[in-house]
Amino acid sequence: MLSDVEAGYGESMILRGVRMKVEPGQVVCLMGRNGVGKTTLMKTIMGLIKMKRGAISYGGKDLTHASTDRRAKCGIGYVPQGRDIFPQLTVEENLLLGLEASSSRIYSVPERVYDMFPVLYDMKRRKGGDLSGGQQQQLSIARALVAGPQLLLLDEPMEGIQPSIVMEIEHVIESIKASKQMSVLLVEQSLTFATSIADYYYVLDKGSIVAEGSSTQLSEEQVKKHLAV
Ligand SMILES: Nc1ncnc2c1ncn2[C@@H]1O[C@H](COP(=O)(O)OP(=O)(O)OP(=O)(O)O)[C@@H](O)[C@H]1O
Predict the structure, then answer these.
(1) 51 and 37 in contact (C-beta within 8 Å)?
(2) Ligand 1 centroid to 164 CA: how many Å?
(3) Residue 75: what pLDDT?
């Protein structure tokens, strides 16, 4: 999916020669210390940062020069770090905005999304800004799911969220995996969760992939070497 990707901000190169693949139905975990370029990689996949070199393809289509909108319509959903919702809009209006990314003609929030996040159904007329941090994160994930993506990019969805909602979000990721309808690329720092749910992992360090493998192979030694602070 990604080959030899180089990208950065202005003159500063952050990603160097990144190669990565997410197979259909897989949950792939992207790990690495703070500031190594995980968010930059997610934004590059989404076309929010222009690549200086390399190629990106998805589902057999070359997306190297595609706009963010086209990538979304090709089935890539993105949940940015820090739950970027619209606080002045209602929960339902936030969710309807997710339909913009859809290639099919749906005009209302699909029931399956409310089934995954019942709290959002109960609160659909409330303003996004009135929700707790964890609920806003659920809203942000639900908004990406509204368009029915085939690949979901999740950037640290559990960061700074209360434990009960972390569990709910974990369940949602588990149910996505069990449905085999979608693949997930997840930036996650929790080793326990990463090893319990991911099929495969990549470790990024200073903008390059320094380790990868099936998550059952993620050893203490690698964690110490690449992830410990
Ligand atoms: N808009 C920007 N302009 C210039 N440099 C940036 C910008 N955003 C991030 N950077 C730099 O790019 C590098 C990688 O940042 P990035 O956010 O991708 O890391 P990360 O691995 O996601 O970190 P974290 O775990 O803290 O979110 C950092 O050195 C950061 O300072």
Answers:
(1) no
(2) 29
(3) 93
129 confidence band (pLDDT: 50, 70, 90): very high
As a whole number, mean pLDDT of residues 99-109 equals 79
Check pocket membership of 8 for ligand 1, CB cut-off 6 A. Answer: no
Q: Rounded distance, CA 226 to CA 229, Å?
A: 8
Q: Does the Cβ of 44 fall within 6 Å of ligand 1? A: no
ipTM of the predicted structure?
Answer: 0.94
- Separation between Cα atoms, residue 65 and residue 97, nearest integer Å: 24
- Ligand 1 atom closest to residue 207's alpha carbon, by position in its atom list: 14
List, in order of start, the domains of the chain with CATH numbers: 2-227 (3.40.50.300)
The answer to whether 214 touches 199, Cβ cutoff 8 Å, is yes
38 lines ligand 1 (CB under 6 A): yes
Q: In one letter, which amino acid is 191?
A: L
Give 177-196 pLDDT, tens digit per residue. 998 889 999 998 877 888 88
84 pLDDT more than 90: no
pLDDT given for residue 229 in this prediction: 63
- CA of 224 from ligand 1 middle (Å) equals 22
Q: How far away, in angstroms, is 34 Cα from ligand 1 center?
A: 8
Q: How far is CA 50 from CA 5, 84, 98, in A?
A: 10, 21, 23
Distance 181 CA to ligand 1 centre (A): 31
**Helix locations, the chain, DSSP H:** 38-46, 68-73, 91-97, 111-116, 118-122, 133-146, 163-179, 191-197, 220-222
Model confidence at 226: pLDDT above 80:
no
